Every structure is written in C-alpha cells, then in structure tokens.
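RETRY 2/3 - previous attempt timed out on the joint model. Re-submitting the same 568-residue input unchanged.
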Amino acid sequence: MDKTINQKAWLLVLPVFLVVAFSAILPLMTVVNYSMQDTFGNNQFFWNGVGWFKELLDPSSDLGSRFFASLWRNLFFSAVILLIEVPLGIVVALSMPRQGWSVAACLVIMALPLLIPWNVVGTIWQIFGRPDIGLLGYTLNHIGINYNYVSNEFDAWATVIVMDVWHWTSLVALLCYAGLKSIPDAYYQAAQIDGASRWAVFTAIQLPKMKRVLLIAVLLRFMDSFMIYTEPFVVTGGGPGNSTTFISIELVKIALGQFDLGKAAALSLVYNLIIIIVCWVFYTVMTNAGVERRAAKGAA
Amino acid sequence: MHSIPGRRLILSLFLVFLLLPIYWLVNMSLKTNGEIVSTMNLWPHQPTLENYIRIFTDESWYTGYINSLKYVVINTVISIAVALPAAYAFSRYRFLGDKHLFFWLLSNRMAPAAVYALPFFNLYSAIGLFDTPWAVALAHCIFNVPLAVWILEGFVSGVPREIDETAFLDGYSFPRFFVKILMPLIASGIGVAAFFCFMFSWVELLLARTLTSVDAKPISAVMTRTVSAAGMDWGLLAAAGVLTIIPGALVIWFVRNYIARGFALGRV
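RETRY 2/3 succeeded.
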C-alpha cells in the first residue's frame, strides 16, 4: 500500500461527514425514538419498549405477517430480476460494436431509460401495458393472450419484472461494457495464437476481467430492487390485492398512510439492518477482490 | 474475438425493446384524447401539439419543471463540492477510521428512501426548510454524496502521486494545487460525478414528494396529483412524461464518451 498515514486528512473528509451525518444520523435517531413508543394522536407518546419489534418479528401477528409476506415477495423479485438482468446485460455488452459512431448511439439509447424519472417509468409502462390503449396490452389480447395487469396477479408480476428489466438491464450492460473495454487487444491476440475457442475466451479472459464490475452491478441491482418503490407503485399500486406490495410500499403505507409511527419505525430499522448486513458482505468481498488484484500486480 | 455470433440481432432486439415503450409515450403525447381512447393507431393520424401547449401555458405545470431543476442543481453543486476533498483524502491518505467511514458512506447510498421519508419530513419542518428546494437538495445528498465520493475517488486514484509531489516541491499551496492542477486533471471525472448526481436526484420521487407541498412541488409530483384529480388525461400525462425525458437525454449526449466508465464508478 502506497498510501501515507495522515490524520489531517480528516479535515478534508469533514464536510462530507457533516452533510451525510445531518441527513442520516439525525433522522435515524428520530426513527429509533419512534420505534420504542406508541401514539394515539395529539402528539401524545407512550413508552412501548421493544413491543413493536416483537410484533414485527412474530409472523402470526398482523404486522409480522405483512412484514414477512412483503419481505419474501421482495426477495423473490430481487432474485428474478438479477437472474434475468445479469446474463442479459453480459450478452448485450458482448454484442456492443467496438468502434465507430454506432458505439455512441448505442450508449445513448441504452442510458436513456436510466435517466427517466422513476414515476415516469411507471407511467410509460402503465400506458404501454393497458389492454385498451397500450401497444403491449392491446397486441397480447389480440393474439389471444388474456392480459390485464390490473386484475391478474401473474400479469401484474410479469409487468413489474419486464419493466425493471427494461429500466435497469442497461446499467449491467454498461458496466460490463466498461469492463470489456479495459481488456488490452494483446490478450485477444494471444488467445487467437493459442487457438482458444470463443467460449474459452469468454471464461478465461472476459469473465475474470468483468468480475469487479459485475460485483458492483449485482450490488447496485440488489440494493435498488430491494428498496424499489415508485415504479410498481405507479403501475400496480401494490395490487391486485397485495400481490406486488414490496417492503417499501408496505412501509410507506404504514408510515404515511396510517401514520402508525411506532410500527413504521420498527419496520424501518429492521429493513435498514438487513440492507446494511448485505451491504457489508458485498463490501468485504469487493475489497478482498481489490486486495487480491493489487497483490497479483505486485507479484508480477 | 470481442464479439459473439448473432450480435447484431441481439443488440437490435434489445434496443428496439428499450425504444418501443418510449415511442409509445411520444405517440400518445401527440394524440388527442379522443383519438387515444377511440382507436388503436400506431402513429398519430391527427397529430396535435395541444398537450404540450397546455403544459407550457399553465403555470402549475411548468413551475414543476423549474422546481425540479432547482433542487437537482443545488444538490449536484453541494455533492461535488463536499465530495472532491474527501475523494482526495480517501485516495491518498490512510487515517483513523477511514475504512469504516467509507463503508458508512456506502451504506447510506443503499438506504431505502422509504425509511427516511417520515423523519426527513419532521426534520425539515422543524428547521423551517420544508417546501423549499433546499430541503429536497439536502435530503438527496444522503445518496448522492457517497456516490460522488466513490466515483471521484476512482478518478483521483488514476492521477499519479508524482504530480502532487512535484506541485508541492514547486511551492504550490494545497488549495492552489487542488484547484489549479488536480481539478483540471480529473475534469472528466467531475463531469461524470455531476452527471450521476443529476441523474439520481432527477429520477427520485418519494423524498421529493414528501418534502414539498405547494411552492417547491417537483414535476413528478405535479404529474401524479393533477392527473388523478382530473380523471385520466392520457395525452397530457404522456406529454409531461416526454418533457421529463428531455433533460436526461441532453445530459447523456454531453457525457456519452464517459458513461461506461462512470457507471463503473471510475473503477475499471
């Protein structure tokens, strides 16, 4: 490691620390405070200890059953979109042209969905999927598939998943493309001389080089899909029934809809804890990968 | 060797898949409501700009765009300004708690907005910033500052240390070195970081909607409310949607050569 130890560096980090602490620690303290209390309106609060947490983690209670149902739903959703978006993103990245004006054109088109406000993404798919006025819904119904995302659970899920694939596959593809671009031509020439097959080039050269960016992609996609709110909310409103109510939607329902501050706060803390744990696992894996890479460089 | 068989077909299908829903939105925005509801036309048969004219002449609509741009710009400026020195510190020095601090920052990037919606509402009401662009700009710092630090750290690490040392030997003070030498060297990195701050602040709805009520209402909130109140005015909704895509598309065009690297957070 060629970094020098210098405690004065804290002065440079201080502004970031203050800004983020103001936005993160203060509100989190409020949440902790609420999670221990019960309110009956009129700003009167009563001490409730760990009552809310007990209820939250007990699947037989109302709050607990809602929490676990939305948690499993959300994990299932994250798993499905990762299974689709990561392989698809890699394939798209491998299909990108190498040079010329078409590269810029592809990049711009692919980045487009990422820059659309999330509620507009919802609106786009709402309009696109409606059986009466949407191209997708209209076509599907005309070729004999009975499709209606408002009333059918399966259709609602399919719409939300296809929408997420539409919205975020580009991110995975762009990351992989950046990884691929960093591979020097010499590697490919060496592979050609060795007579390596297309598949061997992929597994021995391209995949290892993409490992780091793929980790970032999986981390970002998992986190963002785990806290997804706006897009499914606009399209399905969490329905039909509760079939597409993910954790964030449930949380906002409890916090801003019913104003059940104690329950919402307890749910928030558990939710945050899950995210921090997953984040920590990814971070450790990523930094270890970085250390290995540096060690390999040092040895060479 | 780089490419795979059938790549043109795969890529074309993917791009069509991306563009089709957007085309449909544009198509809708150019139709009258009568045409939308009555027939299924692949392109507008009686194209009209009426929906757009309504947005540009109705103050409650176009101020939504101005409000959104206000907090996005404030947020981008704050995020970059505080993130630059921190990125330098993380890239060059080891100090007490640096790894923990970095992880803590990262974990904030991942914190769900839904968790913070209500506490932010309390906090910004208490300090009198509720319903101002500042509230939203500061709230968005929670995920944009860590991101900016992360991206810029990658770019600063790409600058050889010898440059710092030479500058200090030449008698540059730290602030002068920072502004005159380092910042021009990582100009593309600053551009990329600004792009990402812009992007994530522009697309966020939940916090922006929770922290504003009347004066600073962002366009995304105007869209959800006006539309549900007036029944479903599909043409107007589509036109408003198209207009929210345009700023993003413009920004992408300027950074198109750095997009890929930026998405890898400067770490390729």
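Chain B has two domains: 1-48, 58-263. Closing ticket.
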